[in-house]
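Work Package 4 report. The design task specified in the project plan requires that, given a folded chain encoded as structure tokens, an amino acid be chosen for each position. We show below one input record used in the internal validation round.
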């Protein structure tokens, strides 16, 4: 993705936090004609070591996504965090234009299919653990026959991350906007409030100091 240096977040812990707090991702594979095939789905981000990160997910068996991954394992996954409009009214002068601020993570991945029932069950338990741990007991109580029937209807996959970009676009290069921008976002929508929190984390809440001699 387009990555001006002021928006490039190189700390992998920030990327992992965004992937975990906004797990509903877009998996972009390539279909048989070479066009992008986009699948929207939740993914579990799981570090395996300091240098290895995998994304775990599944799709319905009728969904062609898994067949595309089987034929062409290299794909792209995107995660979108909070995002919001930014009015030019946050600037002290009028020669400005609107923009849109956002947080995003892009991963290049290599896919491996998970088709064995026990491995698919383990994958589902990770999703349950992330989103509704109490459901684990209900899943167990459904019985093995029903579980196997449900598991036969999905294909799981492990997506090994081979490259990662994390973009935090928060007007970092326009310090004169930060105080007013933070105030607007703090009083705004849930997404805007989330961006205000990220501004605080990155120290983007104060205006630039006055120029010497003014």
């Amino acid at each position: 993705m387009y990555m001006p240096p002021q928006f490039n977040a190189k700390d992998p812990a920030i990327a992992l936090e965004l992937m975990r707090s906004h797990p509903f991702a877009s998996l972009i594979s390539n279909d048989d004609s070479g066009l992008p095939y986009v699948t929207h789905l939740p993914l579990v981000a799981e570090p395996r070591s300091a240098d290895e990160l995998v994304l775990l997910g599944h799709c319905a068996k009728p969904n062609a996504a898994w067949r595309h991954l089987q034929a062409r394992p290299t794909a792209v996954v995107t995660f979108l965090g909070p995002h919001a409009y930014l009015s030019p009214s946050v600037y002290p002068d009028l020669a400005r234009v609107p923009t849109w601020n956002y947080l995003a993570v892009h991963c290049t991945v290599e896919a491996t299919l998970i088709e064995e029932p026990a491995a698919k069950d383990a994958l589902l338990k990770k999703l349950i653990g992330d989103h509704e741990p109490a459901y684990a007991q209900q899943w167990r109580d459904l019985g093995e026959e029903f579980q196997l029937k449900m598991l036969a209807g999905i294909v799981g996959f492990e997506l090994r991350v081979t490259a990662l970009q994390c973009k935090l676009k928060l007007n970092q290069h326009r310090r004169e906007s930060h105080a007013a921008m933070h105030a607007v976002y703090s009083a705004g929508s849930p997404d805007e409030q989330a961006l205000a929190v990220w501004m605080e984390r990155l120290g983007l809440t104060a205006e630039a100091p006055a120029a010497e001699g003014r």
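Helices lie at 12-21, 65-71, 117-131, 135-141, 144-152, 178-186, 190-201. Validation will be extended to a larger panel in the next phase.
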